[in-house]
């Protein structure tokens, strides 16, 4: 409660006033006013004025003086009246438009002008002992005329038209300042009021609570029914502030009032009517951070409420931390995917540039419009050097991302394929039904399809985005999967989708999977029949043209038996193809003819080309050696034919000479035989 000196009473008393004005024709006839007796509770009025919604109606202003000029009325009291109420004067509800001249009342301490039509504070500068001035419910637009009232302790200017706080420099002893129900948009010019204990600024146009430094004695601050959304960090430094009324403002988050948690003196606060009060965590959060409070929204706080608030606040903090962590993870995911996308784009540009360089080399020399062939600006540098500047700084982020969300495994970037080598738990691997590939070359995906069907046996849906699916034959590789019910190929980064018949080729080649949906569209029986009509001959031609040994190398033991069945001719009868297809679909097996439509990755194709090249080189060398050896043999044969006649003659001659002496020849032969036995 607000205390006043014991000799100062606020209750109104009845008395007669004699007002003389020069504008009234009968100057000698006094005008009598009867002042009604009313009991006034100052503290209740101070706190509840801002809640009043219905104000009393205005009456026509009294017109003192002529229309050309206003002459201030002069107030005189009788000696008896002065004795009864020597230090107080009440002129409420008297239809006054100006403050009358109060003559001979310099000793007044209480002056009441409530519920009049006064527009300006005047004619009271001589009341140097005035302690209490009440101008509630008038039409005052500016605070003025009070600079000489140095003893004033209570100034009530509620429900007026004041737009700015000003001209209070000399009122250093002011204890109560009531400015509720005005049009004030900013708190200012009150930092010198070190003795001020009560400040009422309810029902104004305030948006920010600021400029309260210096109010060292302030215990109560009323800011109800404003537009406050933020409290600047200086309210918490008020050493004596105990009660703060912030009801019906625009405070929407606890961070807007977090500074109040540092106030050691604050015991009562009201926040009802704010957006923050509608939150489920409102009460628990406020009580948890403002342990010094005794009342919240005019309700006393119990120990049980404090305990529950502490528990709830801890849960809320955990929820916020988890939410913050999820936000950070989402942001990291976004940045990582962005980094992967940039690296993918650089890689595609690199491939396109290499293809362009190779094409230029093949076409050299060439002329364009009669000028020299185009030379790249970075021609003197290597391709890696050309593109190195584009990837600077990207290594800070991850170059791949593996994400399990629900039953979907998301793989971003080529490095993510390494996750298939991890030891996945049975539970996690069992729930994966969809695998999504992004920013990964399809040829690299083909190499891990076998691992995919082993690691995730329940996977039935594959998604491809930015995987360079450019040819129909690439879909042949998907036949390695264990099973598949859905296939999604995003047009972004997969030019094959631009082919009109790509879906029908998929249905034909992956017929044994019994696909249910392609790109989210349900597959019908008519689609399957159309696919068979369009591409059925393709499998027959492929199987017919492929050598038998190549066919056998493609199949396992069961497929070899089917192949032999085809070779015997029994499978070539009319309708056999469709029956085989139907049987394979029922059994879940792949058609023998369709199995010949396979896909070789670029790397595998290059390996095959290298192998063929090596074989070609070997064969060429072998044939050259054979030719050389045959040429040597032929040369030797020709030489032999030329030398043989002479050689034969010499042989015959030597034989004749040797056997001419028969005894010597026999002796020589026996000697040779003896030497051989030894």
Automatic annotation (TrEMBL):
UniProt-recorded name of the protein: Leucine rich repeat containing 49
Pfam families in the record: LRR_4 (PF12799), LRR_9 (PF14580)
Residues annotated as transmembrane: none
Originating gene: LRRC49
Claim: Repeat is one of the keywords in the record: yes
InterPro entries associated with the record: Cilia_flagella_integrity, Leu-rich_rpt, Leu-rich_rpt_4, Leu-rich_rpt_typical-subtyp, LRR_dom_sf
Keyword Disulfide bond: no
SUPFAM superfamilies named among the record's database cross-references: L domain-like
Recorded superkingdom: Eukaryota
Gene3D superfamilies: Ribonuclease Inhibitor
SMART domains cross-referenced by the UniProt entry: LRR_SD22 (SM00365), LRR_TYP (SM00369)
Protein keywords: Coiled coil, Leucine-rich repeat, Repeat
Coiled-coil parts of chain: 301-334
PROSITE patterns: LRR
Region: Disordered, residue numbers: 571-592
């Amino acid at each position: 409660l607000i205390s006043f000196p014991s000799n100062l009473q606020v209750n109104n008393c009845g008395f007669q006033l004699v007002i003389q004005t020069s504008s009234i024709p009968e100057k000698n006839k006094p005008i009598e006013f009867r002042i009604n007796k009313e009991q006034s509770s100052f503290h209740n009025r101070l706190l509840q004025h801002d809640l009043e919604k219905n104000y009393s109606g205005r009456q026509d202003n009294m017109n003192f003086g002529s229309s050309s000029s206003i002459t201030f009325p002069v107030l005189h009291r009788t000696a008896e009246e002065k004795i009864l109420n020597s230090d107080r004067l009440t002129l409420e509800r008297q239809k006054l438009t100006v403050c009358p001249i109060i003559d001979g009342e310099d000793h007044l301490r209480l002056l009441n002008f409530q519920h009049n039509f006064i527009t300006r504070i005047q004619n009271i500068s001589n009341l140097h002992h005035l302690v209490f001035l009440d101008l509630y419910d008038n039409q005052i637009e500016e605070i003025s005329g009070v600079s000489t009232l140095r003893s004033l302790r209570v100034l009530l200017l509620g429900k007026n038209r004041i737009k700015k706080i000003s001209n209070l420099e000399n009122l250093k002893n002011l204890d109560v300042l009531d400015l509720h129900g005005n049009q004030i948009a900013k708190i200012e010019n009150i930092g010198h009021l070190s003795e001020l204990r009560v400040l009422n600024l309810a029902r104004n146009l305030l948006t920010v609570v600021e400029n309260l430094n210096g109010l060292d004695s302030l215990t109560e601050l009323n800011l109800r029914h404003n537009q406050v959304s933020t409290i600047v960090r200086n309210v918490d430094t008020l050493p004596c502030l105990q009660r703060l009324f912030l009801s019906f403002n625009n405070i929407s988050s606890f961070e807007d009032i977090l500074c109040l948690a540092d106030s050691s003196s604050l015991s009562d606060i009201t926040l009802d009517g704010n957006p923050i009060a509608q939150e489920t965590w409102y009460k628990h959060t406020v009580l948890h951070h403002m342990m010094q409070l005794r009342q919240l929204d005019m309700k006393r706080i119990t120990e049980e409420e404090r305990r529950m608030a502490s528990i709830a606040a801890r849960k809320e903090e955990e929820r916020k931390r988890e939410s913050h962590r999820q936000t950070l993870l989402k942001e990291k995911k976004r940045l990582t995917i962005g980094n992967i996308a940039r690296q993918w784009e650089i890689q595609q540009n690199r491939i396109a540039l290499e293809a362009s360089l190779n094409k230029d080399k093949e076409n050299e020399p060439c002329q364009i419009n009669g000028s020299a062939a185009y030379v790249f600006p970075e021609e003197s540098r290597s391709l890696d050097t050309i593109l190195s500047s584009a990837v600077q700084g990207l290594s800070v982020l991850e170059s791949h991302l593996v994400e399990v969300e629900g039953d979907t495994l998301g793989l971003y970037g080529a490095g993510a394929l390494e996750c298939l080598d991890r030891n996945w738990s049975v539970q996690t691997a069992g729930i994966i039904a969809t695998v999504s590939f992004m920013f990964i070359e399809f040829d690299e995906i083909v190499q891990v399809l076998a691992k995919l069907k082993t690691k995730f046996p329940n996977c039935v849906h594959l998604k491809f985005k930015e995987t360079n699916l450019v040819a129909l034959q690439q879909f042949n590789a998907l036949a390695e999967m264990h099973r598949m019910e859905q296939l999604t190929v995003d047009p972004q980064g997969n030019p094959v989708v631009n082919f009109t018949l790509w879906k029908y080729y998929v249905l034909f080649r992956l017929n044994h999977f019994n696909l249910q949906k392609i790109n989210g569209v349900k597959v019908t029986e008519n689609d399957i029949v159309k696919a068979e009509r369009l591409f059925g001959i393709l499998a027959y031609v492929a199987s017919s043209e492929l050598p038998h040994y190549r066919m056998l190398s493609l199949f396992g033991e069961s497929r070899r038996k089917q192949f032999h069945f085809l070779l015997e001719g029994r499978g070539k009868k009319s309708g056999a193809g469709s029956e085989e297809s139907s049987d394979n679909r029922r059994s879940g097996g792949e058609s023998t003819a369709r199995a010949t439509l396979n896909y070789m990755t670029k790397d595998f194709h290059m390996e095959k080309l290298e192998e063929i090249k090596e074989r070609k080189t070997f064969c060429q060398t072998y044939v050259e050696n054979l030719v050389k050896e045959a040429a040597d043999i032929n040369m030797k044969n020709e030489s032999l034919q030329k030398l043989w006649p002479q050689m034969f003659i010499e042989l015959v001659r030597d034989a004749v000479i040797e056997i001419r002496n028969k005894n010597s020849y026999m002796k020589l032969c026996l000697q040779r035989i003896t030497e051989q036995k030894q």
